[in-house]
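Structure, all two chains, one model.
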Amino acid sequence: GAGVSQSPSNKVTEKGKDVELRCDPISGHTALYWYRQSLGQGLEFLIYFQGNSAPDKSGLPSDRFSAERTGGSVSTLTIQRTQQEDSAVYLCASSTGRLNWGEKLFFGSGTQLSVL
Amino acid sequence: RKEVEQDPGPFNVPEGATVAFNCTYSNSASQSFFWYRQDCRKEPKLLMSVYSSGNEDGRFTAQLNRASQYISLLIRDSKLSDSATYLCVVTRTTSGTYKYIFGTGTRLKVLA
């Protein structure tokens, strides 16, 4: 597709349930990022994938959070045993990964997660 | 102290006004610099890159001062449609990860 695609756009779940959020980056982009944004807050880095390298998981807030990227393209962020504090917008972004100066980052429209 | 600091605002300005936002960053190894715009309940979108020599895109002018670790954005002739949150972004490489570090943003409201 032309842009970064995320699904679902909205997800309402009950506390304790598992959720999966999907991101389809721009075709050809090797770098993929997940961020979280709570209401009125800034962007919180979660995880970074670059090509076939091991992902940088340093931003994942707990072991309930995991992510994978299959075939170097689509990524899935999984949150197990959701808690109310997980409620936020989860944003996926991608870039070409060439790491040139001025390399731009492009965002999907996000998944609004609400944990009841 | 946050790595990228911005005045949260809000800046309330009348249409047609000129408004300036500032941003400071703490890591001298920062590599690239950007301004992103985020509308309410939307994703951030790239507004412009920031070059060392300063750059202009229509009504928007960005400046970078590496010595002072300071970035600015000037908006001239403000429009109602400029109302949004403006995010200052810097990049750096840490342990093989090319990171985009976001400020928490400055809110702008342009009033009719």
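The radius of gyration of chain B is 14 Å.
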